[in-house]
Specification:
Blueprint lengths: L5 E7 L32 E6 L6 H5 L2 E3 L19 E6 L2 E5 L5 E4 L6 E5 L30 E8 L5 E4 L6 H8 L17 E8 L2 E7 L26 E7 L9 H15 L1 H4 L3 E6 L6 H15 L5 E3 L8 H20 L15
Parallel strand pairs: 1-3, 2-4, 9-11, 9-12, 12-13, 13-14
Antiparallel strand pairs: 1-8, 2-7, 5-6, 5-8, 10-11
Length: about 350
């Protein structure tokens, strides 16, 4: 299935039905009075978060979505039926914003979330509504109210605990396939990954986290080089970034330190908040480095990169070092989740018993 993470749609809720002007015509009832019913409500447009979807491709080719209008009121005190609602299924993590102003209107963050994105118009009043002591035979009615119409932008940000960051061919796809249930395409040429991949990493019984792999970045991505920044949005909701470094590039003239610095700079240009997220270094492909040279090469990289954060040495191909890394990740993610669920701290000015 083609991965699409952005789409524009037009939606229209149903108009309300018109009210009816009608009078009772029955034998032996000379002054039957008004009996025109109200119009029915127009159909609403709902959006639901469906965990079985992972792309917005359906909305790329089907842009306009309209709910049915309400039926008109009828005689004999009969109200019009409400128009049929429509429900649009969207992936979890979809952001719905106004296409013209860019204002974020809704977010679908949890499976099964249902929101009303366009309300149907109310039905108009029939003439029975206008009957009074001084107006025994009203001929007034009102038309139905129009339903809401909107032009919307849909943007998908995948929900993952951990995001992989790195140059093309750094081994991100090999790593995610080694530690999770994801099976991305793996090959020995750059830009093998063309869209984000999600994988669930099982650490133990009822212990897991979700990891996301996005296409590799290169220097100049902010100007559109390579695949550009179009997939970095999928890392904005992660709790931790893993910066994967190729420690054994095919071209000996390539400097891993220069590549790593270029990635960090592109991250800073795209989003300062994303740049400020917790980030760990994962030095990959060490199986291709002679064992006697590994320690020196790692030490040289960390020194020249001026890195003071966590560093992990792995080989995604042989899975060497991967076990310790995923346990450290789970511990970090779990701590972040518990901190988020912890009750807010009490301001010390208001602590203790209230004064008598």
């Amino acid at each position: 299935m083609k991965f699409v993470d952005e789409a524009f749609i037009d939606i229209a809720a149903g108009d309300g039905g018109n009210g009816c002007v009608s009078f009772r015509h029955e034998k032996y009832k000379e002054f039957g009075g008004p009996n025109g019913g109200d119009g029915g409500r127009g159909g609403h447009v709902f959006a639901v978060a469906d965990p079985n979807l992972n792309t917005l491709v359906d909305f790329r080719y089907s842009r306009r979505h309209e709910a049915k209008r309400g039926e008109h009121g009828m005689g004999s005190d009969m109200f019009g039926a409400a128009g049929d609602d429509i429900t649009l299924k969207m992936p979890v993590g979809t952001i719905i914003s106004d296409a013209e102003t860019g204002e974020v209107l809704y977010e679908l963050l949890n499976p099964g979330d249902v929101i009303t994105i366009a309300k149907g118009g109310d039905g108009g009043f029939g003439n029975m509504r206008f009957k009074s002591a001084i107006n025994r035979a009203p001929r007034q009615k009102t038309p139905g109210w129009p339903g809401e119409r909107k032009s919307l932008k849909l943007e998908l940000k995948v929900l993952a605990d951990v995001g992989l960051l790195g140059m093309p061919n750094a081994g991100k796809s090999t790593f995610i396939s080694a530690v999770s249930n994801a099976r991305p395409k793996i090959a020995d040429y750059p830009f093998t990954t063309l869209h984000p991949n999600l994988g669930v990493v099982r650490v133990g019984p009822e212990q897991s986290f979700v990891i996301a792999d996005i296409p590799g970045l290169i220097e100049g991505a902010s100007e559109g080089a390579g695949l550009g920044h179009q997939f970095l949005r999928h890392l904005q909701r992660t709790r931790l970034l893993l910066h994967v470094i190729d420690m054994a590039p095919f071209d000996e003239a390539v400097d891993p330190v220069a590549q790593a610095k270029a990635i960090v700079e592109e991250l800073r240009k795209y989003d300062p908040e994303l740049h400020a997220k917790p980030r760990w270094l994962v030095l990959n492909k060490l199986d291709m480095v002679p064992e006697q040279d590994r320690a020196a090469r790692v030490k040289d990289f960390v020194k020249r990169f001026k890195w003071k954060g966590p560093v992990f040495e792995i080989s995604a191909l042989t899975r060497e070092g991967c076990e310790g890394l995923i346990h450290a990740i789970y511990k970090h993610v779990r701590a972040e989740q518990q901190a988020q669920m912890a009750p807010a701290e009490v301001d010390p000015r208001f602590a203790g018993d209230a004064p008598e």
